């Protein structure tokens, strides 16, 4: 039993890092543009396929293709912003959130259907020569690729933190998310900030997708599930809080993992969702958010 | 549009629907019409909460599924269909009243996310508790008659439309729309926002359960959790927005457009149908907030003489116009 629990703790932490990474992108778009992109999980799915096909057809190692996938999905994010989300950001905040929810929901349908059409509905996993390798700490087994996933997630979060707090662009970005009108008055090019923030959000989702296709599996229909995980993490961390996100992700991973030990794997998501609703009811600002956020 | 012509149109459509149910021997047409009526009823029920009261629910399928589940279990268990449906609606109303309390405390986006989480949690739980497929007994299957399900679906649709119509012109319904347009202002003018949202939530859920009952009575076999699938919510939202949110005919028109369109498009590439509807939905949200109903109405208004055009310009709160 102790071994089972320890193993669950480790698996929970490892998957939680990816939850955090997915949520990071969602929170970035929400925090800066005030758009809720429910197609975030579909962007993850696309990133996962990009890595999968790069590996299957050209033999490119997923860790090598990750920067390429990042750049490609950054470009796709730019496209999505210019074609769709740009129009949403012109409206006032309430309409913005509602309309972005709706059009990204349309996007979910489109991207998912296209993925079924072109990638088939099969479940895919990248199996590299090192995919099955793992090392053991005492009674606990730690799969190498999943550990690498956690490391990538943490590195991405730190890089984003650095970008936000240490660079000129980061300052413009924070100013925009606080109050875009005042940011615009002080000379910030708000549209450029929006464009880059959204593209960055898509690129982060894609990186998470690469990790999912490496350590877990992808299929065209995984999007909604991941979006929901990201939403849960964002709300747990508190809307507008970037720092708590990886921690909140790991917390969610742990809760799910331990819940499946006691209640069985089939209730793992239900427990997370119920916990989410309870926290949303009693602490809507999340664990790390400010009371008024 | 004024009341006279639309009442005539409604009567003609109803007569046609009854005639199709009585006369048509084509299983294809009957199936399509039943599917359209069920989806139209479900979409109209979503529209009461989403269109009238302005609360975007992403968990509507939970109530559709609950209605289907209770109806199916009771009815296959030997209870009369009418009793089974009433029980399903009553149970769903109570369930909605209970979950509505925490859900409706969430505002805007939190309500959407909260209901999505609820819907997914219920879907997974239903799949865990009722894993087996539910099928009609072989005997019923041999004598399967479309007429029963057809008229059940028609009655369900009529009930839903009648309640929507009544709500739209009642004091409660007006209160809902006030809450939708400005919750603070509604409170300031003495409209109890929470109570109005709650009424919309319970009516909307109960009618979704009613649509679920029609689905359960019509379907030959399905996995019980299929009725809880988030797909139902998605289709309802798609249909409401494409048709015209906040109106009576919007969801009906949208459902016809959706089911007939899906039937007419080439079926060898299923995915492109979804892509087309998804794109159309995005276009509607971005460019035509009144949906196809409004677009069609503008077209009609344009072809008429300019002095009559003004009748179509009655503003409604949805930034769109209503036909009935």
Supply the key terms.
heterodimer; A: 293 residues; mainly alpha; ABC transporter involved in vitamin B12 uptake, BtuC; 75% helix; B: 324 residues; two-stranded antiparallel sheet; 1% strand; globular; disordered C terminus
The radius of gyration of chain A is 19 Å
How can the largest sheet of chain A be summarized?
2 strands, antiparallel
Helical proportion of chain A? over 70%
Low-pLDDT windows of residues of chain A? none
The run of helices and strands of chain A is HHHHEEHHHHHHH
- State the secondary-structure class of chain B: mainly alpha
Main sheet strand line-up of chain B: 1-2
CATH architecture of chain A: Orthogonal Bundle
Stretches of chain B where pLDDT falls below 50 for ≥5 residues?
308-324
- Using only C-alpha atoms, the radius of gyration of chain B works out to 20 Å
**What overall form of chain A do the CA principal axes indicate?**
globular
The first-to-last residue Cα distance of chain B is 7 Å
CATH topology of chain A: ABC transporter involved in vitamin B12 uptake, BtuC
Number of separate structural domains of chain A = 1
Annotation, overall tally of beta strands of chain A: 2
Overall mean pLDDT of chain A stands at 87
What is the percent of helical residues of chain B?
A: over 70%
How many strands, what sense, and barrel or not for the largest sheet of chain B? 2 strands, antiparallel
Number of helices of chain A: 11
Short account of what is shown:
The complex is a heterodimer of chains A (293) and B (324). Chain A is an all-alpha fold.
Characterize the structure shown:
- Chain A has helices at about 1-35, 40-60, 60-90, 95-120, 145-165, 170-180, 180-185, 190-215, 225-235, 245-265, 270-280, and strands at about 135, 140-145.
- The model of chain A has no long low-confidence stretch (mean pLDDT about 85).
- In chain A, β1 and β2 form a beta hairpin.
- Chain A is built from eleven helices and two strands, in the order ααααββααααααα.
- In chain A, strands 1-2 form a two-stranded antiparallel ribbon.
- The N and C termini of chain A lie far apart (about 40 Å).
- Chain B has one domain (about 5-315).
- Chain B is globular, with a radius of gyration of 20 Å.
- The chains are: A mainly alpha (about 290), B mainly alpha (about 325).
């Amino acid at each position: 039993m102790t071994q089972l629990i320890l193993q669950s703790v480790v698996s929970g932490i490892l998957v939680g890092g990816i939850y955090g990474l997915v949520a990071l992108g969602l929170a970035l778009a929400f925090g800066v543009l005030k758009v809720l992109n429910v197609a975030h999980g579909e962007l993850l799915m696309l990133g996962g396929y990009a890595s999968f096909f790069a590996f299957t057809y050209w033999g490119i190692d997923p860790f090598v293709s990750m920067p390429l996938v990042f750049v490609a999905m950054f470009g796709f994010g730019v496209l999505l912003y210019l074609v769709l989300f740009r129009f949403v950001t012109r409206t006032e905040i309430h309409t913005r959130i509602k309309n972005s929810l709706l059009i990204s929901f349309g996007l979910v349908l489109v991207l998912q259907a296209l993925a079924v059409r072109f990638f088939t509905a099969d479940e895919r996993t990248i199996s590299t020569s090192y995919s099955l390798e793992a090392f053991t700490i005492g009674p606990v087994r730690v799969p190498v690729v999943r550990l690498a996933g956690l490391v990538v997630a943490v590195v991405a979060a730190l890089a984003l933190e650095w970008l936000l707090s240490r660079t000129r662009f980061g300052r413009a970005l924070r100013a925009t998310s606080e109050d875009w009108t005042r940011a615009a008055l002080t000379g910030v090019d708000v549209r450029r900030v929006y464009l880059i923030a959204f593209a960055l959000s898509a690129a982060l989702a894609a990186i998470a997708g690469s990790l999912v296709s490496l350590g877990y599996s992808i299929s065209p229909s995984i999007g909604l599930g991941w979006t929901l995980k990201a939403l849960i993490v964002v709300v747990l961390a508190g809307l507008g809080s970037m720092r708590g996100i990886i921690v909140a992700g790991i917390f969610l991973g742990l809760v799910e993992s331990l819940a499946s030990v006691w209640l069985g794997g089939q209730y793992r998501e239900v427990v997370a969702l119920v916990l989410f609703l309870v926290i949303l009811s009693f602490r809507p600002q999340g664990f790390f958010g400010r009371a008024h956020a | 549009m004024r009341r006279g012509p639309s009442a005539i149109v409604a009567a003609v459509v109803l007569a046609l629907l009854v005639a199709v149910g009585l006369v048509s021997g084509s299983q294809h047409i009957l199936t399509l019409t039943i599917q359209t009526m069920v989806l139209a009823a479900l979409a109209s029920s979503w529209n009461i909460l989403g269109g009238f009261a302005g609360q975007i629910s992403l968990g509507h399928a939970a109530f559709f599924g609950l209605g289907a589940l209770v109806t199916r279990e009771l009815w296959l268990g030997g209870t009369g269909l009418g009793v089974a449906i009433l029980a399903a609606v009553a149970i769903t109303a109570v369930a909605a009243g209970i979950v509505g309390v925490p859900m409706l405390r969430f505002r805007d986006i939190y309500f959407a996310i909260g209901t999505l989480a609820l819907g997914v949690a219920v879907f997974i739980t239903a799949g865990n508790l009722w894993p087996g497929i539910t099928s009609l007994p072989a005997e019923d299957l041999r004598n399967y008659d479309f007429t029963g399900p057809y008229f059940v679906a028609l009655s369900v649709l009529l009930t839903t439309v009648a309640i929507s119509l009544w709500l739209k012109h009642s004091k409660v319904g007006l209160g809902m729309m006030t809450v939708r347009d400005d919750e603070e202002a509604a409170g300031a003018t003495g409209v109890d926002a929470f109570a109005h949202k709650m009424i919309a939530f319970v009516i909307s859920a109960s009618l979704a359960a009613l649509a679920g009952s029609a689905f359960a009575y019509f379907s030959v076999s399905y996995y019980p959790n299929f009725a809880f699938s988030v797909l139902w919510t998605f289709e309802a939202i798609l249909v409401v927005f494409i048709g015209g949110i906040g109106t009576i005919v919007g969801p009906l028109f949208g459902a016809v457009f959706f089911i007939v369109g899906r039937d007419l498009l080439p079926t060898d590439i299923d995915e492109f149908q979804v892509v087309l509807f998804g794109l159309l939905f995005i276009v509607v949200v971005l460019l035509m907030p009144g949906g196809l109903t409004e677009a069609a109405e503008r077209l009609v208004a344009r072809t008429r003489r300019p002095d009559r055009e003004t009748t179509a310009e009655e503003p409604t709160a949805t930034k769109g116009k209503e036909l009935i």
